[in-house]
Specification:
- The structure is a single chain.
- With 182 residues, this protein is of the alpha+beta class.
- The chain has helices at 2-31, 56-68, 108-111, 133-143; strands at residues 78-82, 88-92, 98-103, 119-123, 149-155, 158-164, 177-181.
- Helix 1 (2-31) packs antiparallel against helix 2.
- The longest helix is centred in the N-terminal third of the chain and has 30 residues, at 2-31.
């Protein structure tokens, strides 16, 4: 009986997670439309005035929803499957800890298939449980310069395995992208 309740609660959480991920993807698509402000772009023009081509309160609300009301960015779901004899098998659903909010054209990240809005789940040895995530990401890229680095991203609700090769190029950094910690 207990197993059935846990399974039902877990399925409910997975369903809620799917709804939240769909909402996140919708927000990212809306913010990253051509001419849009993107996930972290300026809301003011070059003279410091608010941009007249976007709805600034709506953009701020969308960004707030993405960045940390807790429900979206920190949702943890443990899927538990129970067999008839009450044996338990746990599968931890991977938690994204960063989002790709900028990618330079012709950068290693772009060449290797990383996309704007990808949620980083694993970057080499770096996962959500690691302390000092930004520093760990930079260190992982530096220690793997010139070598293939396996990463896992969540793209439109699905986990995608990619391989990137941090390397020198004509732009900034070894990948040419920017991660924002969630």
């Amino acid at each position: 009986m207990v197993g059935t309740n846990l399974k039902g609660e877990t399925l409910s959480m997975i369903s809620k997670r799917s709804v939240v991920e769909a909402e996140m993807n919708s927000i990212i698509d809306r913010l990253c439309q051509p001419g849009g402000p993107g996930i972290s772009g300026n809301l003011v023009d070059s003279e410091g005035f608010p941009r007249s081509d976007i709805d600034i309160p709506a953009v701020r609300a969308d960004r707030q929803r993405l960045s940390g009301d807790g429900e979206v960015s920190n949702m943890v779901v443990e899927e538990r499957a129970y067999t008839d004899n009450a044996m338990e098998v746990d599968t931890l659903v991977k938690i994204p800890f960063a989002i790709v909010d900028e990618i330079a054209d012709a950068s290693p990240a772009a060449d290797d298939g990383l996309q704007l809005g990808d949620h980083i789940v694993k970057f080499g040895k770096v996962e959500a449980s690691v302390q000092n995530l930004l520093q760990s990401l930079a260190s992982e890229a530096q220690s793997n310069q010139g070598r293939r680095l396996d990463i896992v991203v969540m793209r439109q609700g699905a986990l995608v395995n990619l391989t990137v090769t941090p390397r020198s190029w004509h732009g900034r950094g070894l990948l040419g992208c920017h991660f924002r910690i969630l």
